[in-house]
C-alpha cells in the first residue's frame, strides 16, 4: 500500500467516525485502532507491536498554522518517540507510543480538522512522513549516539526520561529551518498565519522550503463536504 492509499484510508476512517481522538495506530492489515485498544490488545497478544506500521494523530485546531505545518506545530516529540521505539527502545515514565518497541513503525500521520466556526471548518488535512527519512534529516541517529554513548551497546533498552529530553532538545535547537531552530520556525509561522504578521512572508516562504526538505511530507487536504482533495 502506497502513501496515497494510506492517506485515503485514514480519510475514510475519519469520515465514518472510526478514527479515535488523538493517538491511534495503523496496523499492517491497514486497520486503525486507538491507543487504548492497542494497549489492551498488547496485554493478551504482545506480538501486535510488530504489526504497527504507523502512528496516527487525530486532532482539531483553531489555527491556520497547524493546518499548513502539522509536523512542525503539533508535537515536537513525536519524531523522537517514533524513531527510538522503532530502534528497540522504550522510554521510562512516558508511554506515548505504548509499552513496547515498534520495530516495523514506518510512518507518522497527522489528521487535522478545524474547529467549528473557523474559516476553514470544512477542511481535513492528512499529512504523512516517513520516520527514517525525517530522523536522518534531523540528525537523530548522531544525536542519540552522543547522548546515550556506551548505553547503545548494552542490553538495557530503557531510556530514562531525562535522556529523552536531552535528545529532543538537541533536535529542537538545530537551525534546520532556514537558519531558525524548530522553536523559532514554529513561532514565525504561527505569527504569520494566526496573527496576520504579513511582514514575515519571506521568512515563512524559506521555512516552508526547509519544511519540505526536512520532513518530505506527503499531504492531501480534503473538503469535508465533498471529500474531494482541494487547495486551502
Short description:
This protein has helices spanning 3-15, 35-44, 64-68, 70-73, 78-86, 131-137, 140-148, 161-173, 182-194, 201-215; strands at 22-27, 32-34, 52-61, 90-91, 107-114, 123-130, 158-159, 218-223, 228-229.
Describe the SSE topology:
Layout: H1 3-15, E1 22-27, E2 32-34, H2 35-44, E3 52-61, H3 64-68, H4 70-73, H5 78-86, E4 90-91, E5 107-114, E6 123-130, H6 131-137, H7 140-148, E7 158-159, H8 161-173, H9 182-194, H10 201-215, E8 218-223, E9 228-229
Parallel strand pairs: 3-5, 4-7
Antiparallel strand pairs: 1-2, 1-3, 5-6, 6-8, 8-9
Note the overall shape: globular
What integer is the average pLDDT? 92
Low-confidence segments, given as residue ranges, are none
| Class inferred from helices and paired strands | alpha+beta
The strand count comes to 9
N- to C-terminal separation? Answer: 27 Å
Task: Provide the helix percentage.
Answer: 40-55%
Number of domains: 1
> How many H/I helices?
10
Strand arrangement within the widest β-sheet reads 2-1-3-5-6-8-9
Which percent range describes the beta-strand content?
15-25%
- Order of helical and strand elements: HEEHEHHHEEEHHEHHHEE
Alpha carbon gyration radius? 18 Å
Instruction: Give the biggest sheet.
Output: 7 strands, mixed
Amino acid at each position: 500500500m502506497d502513501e496515497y492509499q494510506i492517506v485515503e484510508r485514514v480519510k475514510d476512517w475519519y469520515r465514518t467516525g472510526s478514527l479515535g481522538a488523538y493517538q491511534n495506530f495503523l496496523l499492517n492489515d491497514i486497520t486503525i485502532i486507538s491507543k487504548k485498544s492497542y494497549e489492551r490488545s498488547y496485554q493478551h497478544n504482545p506480538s501486535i507491536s510488530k504489526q504497527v506500521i504507523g502512528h496516527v494523530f487525530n486532532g482539531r485546531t483553531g489555527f491556520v498554522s497547524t493546518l499548513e505545518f502539522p509536523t512542525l506545530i503539533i508535537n515536537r516529540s513525536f519524531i523522537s518517540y517514533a524513531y527510538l521505539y522503532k530502534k528497540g527502545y522504550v522510554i521510562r515514565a512516558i508511554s506515548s507510543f505504548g509499552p513496547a518497541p515498534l520495530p516495523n513503525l514506518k510512518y507518522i500521520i497527522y489528521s487535522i480538522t478545524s474547529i467549528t466556526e473557523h474559516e476553514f471548518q470544512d477542511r481535513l488535512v492528512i499529512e504523512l512522513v516517513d520516520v527514517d527519512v525525517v530522523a536522518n534529516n534531523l540528525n537523530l541517529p548522531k544525536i542519540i549516539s552522543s547522548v546515550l554513548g556506551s548505553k547503545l551497546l548494552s542490553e538495557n533498552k530503557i531510556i530514562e526520561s531525562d535522556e529523552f529530553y536531552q535528545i529532543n532538545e538537541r533536535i529542537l535547537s538545530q537551525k534546520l529551518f532556514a537558519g531558525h531552530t524548530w522553536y523559532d520556525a514554529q513561532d514565525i509561522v504561527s505569527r504569520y498565519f494566526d496573527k496576520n504578521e504579513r511582514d514575515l512572508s519571506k521568512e515563512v516562504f524559506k521555512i516552508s522550503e526547509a519544511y519540505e526538505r526536512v520532513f518530505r511530507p506527503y499531504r492531501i487536504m480534503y473538503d469535508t463536504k465533498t471529500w474531494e482533495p482541494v487547495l486551502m
